[in-house]
Structure prediction request, 78 residues.
Amino acid sequence: MAYCEEIHPVPPEDSWIVLLDVIEREIPPSYVDQSKTGRRRYKRWRGTGESFPTRKNKCSVCRDFGHKRTTCPNRNAP
Prediction:
């Protein structure tokens, strides 16, 4: 047997004897972890009037702007 002692069933809630001070006691809400799931954002939030510089893609094969290595027309096909 898995347990050494007996496990008694809990009686219905109507038959419980609860003291008045326990009933009137205010219980604070349990702590809930408010941390967000997923990867943290390390960049700062930009202001409403603040712009950020735009960059064009630069190919690492031909060093030309406007496309990436995967779509380079000068890339040798395997």
User: Anything to note?
Assistant: The chain has a mean pLDDT of 82.
